[in-house]
Amino acid sequence: MERPLFYSLSPKSLKSFLESNGQKAFVATQILKWVYEKYEFNPENWTNISKNLKDLLLENFDFNLPRIVWNGLSKDGTRKFLVAMRDDKTVETVMIPARSNRKTLCVSSQVGCAIGCTFCHTGTMGLMRHLEAGEIIGQFLAVTKFLRDKVGPEERLSNVVFMGQGEPLHNFENVKVATELMVNEKALGLSQRRVTISTSGLVPQIKKLDDFPPVNIAISLHAAHNDIRTELMPINKAFDLDRLLGAIKEIPLKAHRYITYEYLLIDQYNDRAEDVTALLNLLPKKVSKINLIPFNEYPESNFKRPSVSRINWFKNQLEDGGITTTIRTTKGSDILAACGQLKSELEKDANLWD
Ligand code: SF4
């Protein structure tokens, strides 16, 4: 049987493992510093750890990071990685530069996806398997190592969004453990406000979100009418807008401040005056923010991208109605229009990448 991944282990579980093997609990802090502060992933190089303990750790855990098998750099600085797990299954991970030297990592949570959104390439693959918590954390560590080795030792990732392949809440327990490791100060130590879970709207799991660290929540809404949303996202048949908004109201908002709604804007389809009215009626104004994602056309797509004036009109209507609205514009970010569009965009938009 394969050894468990070390990067799935919480600081608390590491401590218990050490104590149950006759080791002092404080050694956990030294080990975590090697991994999460010094980015040294080979226990053989940990100078303040005894040989016996290194052997014990290596016998019990797998310290290998996922392998970066390909990477490409976009003109705007976005870098895309194809990352292979130990069973050789691959997922995509994207690093997006932002203001003030910040860098966001968009991680995948599953190989494939069971949700089947009609605009999404990953949706056509079906679900192959869930990623383990350590494979999600491993994406962060592998990209950090890549950046430090290839760009400079000061390179750091500051934010994480779960908008890569997969529906994060379908892989609830592993994503929860990964999120806890992300915000734990002894592990990745990210601020809760710099981690975002994005969901297509799995209502039963949304109801369990109070179990999660209070990170940001984004909902892939894409339509304010049930018939349109069902066409785009078959999950709407099981969990329609009433049930979805009912569950969202239960999310404790103290730390979240607001919920972000992702809205793929498609010409003459969901960009009409009646869509504005429906959105304004649907969403609670003070605690909602809408992120408009103008559709990215590709040769065989049935949908069209709205004109710039139409996009701006739609945004202004929502803002006039009292909802903070942003437009996702840059090319590198466009590929994140939907979780799971990454692979198809890579194929369709090869010119974007080196
Ligand atoms: S958009 Fe996200 S939830 Fe929908 S099929 Fe693609 S990966 Fe799954």
UniProtKB/TrEMBL annotation:
UniProt key word DNA-binding: no
Amino acids binding [4Fe-4S] cluster: C113, C117, C120
A Pfam family matched in the record: Radical_SAM
Cofactor note: Binds 1 [4Fe-4S] cluster. The cluster is coordinated with 3 cysteines and an exchangeable S-adenosyl-L-methionine.
Top-level class of the enzyme under EC nomenclature: transferase
Annotated HAMAP family: RNA_methyltr_RlmN
Entry similarity comment: Belongs to the radical SAM superfamily. RlmN family.
Protein name: Probable dual-specificity RNA methyltransferase RlmN
Organism from which the protein derives: Halobacteriovorax vibrionivorans
